[in-house]
Design brief:
Length: about 170
C-alpha cells in the first residue's frame, strides 16, 4: 500500500534497540558542542532537509534559550542574511550546509575546514562534524517515519510554520 506524498500519517517507528546508537551520538554531541552552535546547526540542517518535526522542535528549544523568532528565521535561511550573523557563526552555518549537502570530497573544501578550525579549533571542528551528522540522521528518521510535529509539547504556532526560503 502506498500513500500519497501529501499524506501526513505517522508510520511505524524505529525500534528502541536500533535507536541506541543515535542516543549515544546525541549524548556525545550534547556533551561537547555549545548550545549556541547546536542551535545554529540543528535549525539550519533541519530547515535544509525540510524536516518539519525537527524544525519545530529546534525552534522551540532555541526560543527556550532566549532566541527571538527573528534570530531563528535568520539562522534557518542565513545565506539571505549573511550580514546578520557573525564570522564564526557563518563558518559553523557554512559547515552545516556543506556536510548536509554532501557531494563527495569537494563538499567540504579545505578553505571551509580551515575557517571552522580557526573559529572552533581542530577538536571543535571534529565535534561539529558529529553534531551535523547527528541532526542529519535525526532528520532522516523523522522524515522517513513521518513524525508529526504537532505531537511536540511547548510549541507556539510559528514553530509549525514552513521554513521561508529565499
Amino acid at each position: 500500500m502506498s500513500t500519497s506524498p501529501g499524506k501526513s500519517e505517522q508510520r511505524k517507528q524505529v525500534s528502541a534497540g536500533a535507536m541506541a546508537p543515535m542516543l549515544a551520538l546525541e549524548a556525545y554531541s550534547r556533551a561537547r558542542v555549545s548550545r549556541q552552535d547546536s542551535h545554529l546547526i540543528r535549525l539550519r540542517a533541519s530547515a535544509v532537509n525540510g524536516c518539519r518535526y525537527c524544525t519545530a522542535m529546534h525552534r522551540r528549544d532555541a526560543r527556550k534559550d532566549g532566541w527571538s523568532e527573528t534570530r531563528i528565521a535568520v539562522v534557518e535561511n542565513w545565506p539571505a542574511h549573511v550580514e546578520e550573523v557573525s564570522p564564526a557563526e557563518r563558518a559553523v552555518l557554512s559547515f552545516a550546509d556543506a556536510v548536509t549537502h554532501i557531494d563527495g570530497e569537494k563538499s567540504v573544501p579545505d578553505e571551509l575546514w580551515d575557517e571552522v578550525v580557526r573559529h572552533r579549533g581542530e577538536n571543535g571542528a571534529g565535534q561539529l562534524v558529529m553534531e551535523i551528522v547527528t541532526i542529519n540522521a535525526w532528520n532522516r528518521i523523522a522524515i522517513a517515519t513521518r513524525k508529526d510535529p504537532a505531537t511536540l509539547r511547548g510549541l507556539i504556532p510559528s514553530d509549525l510554520e514552513p521554513v521561508k526560503r529565499r
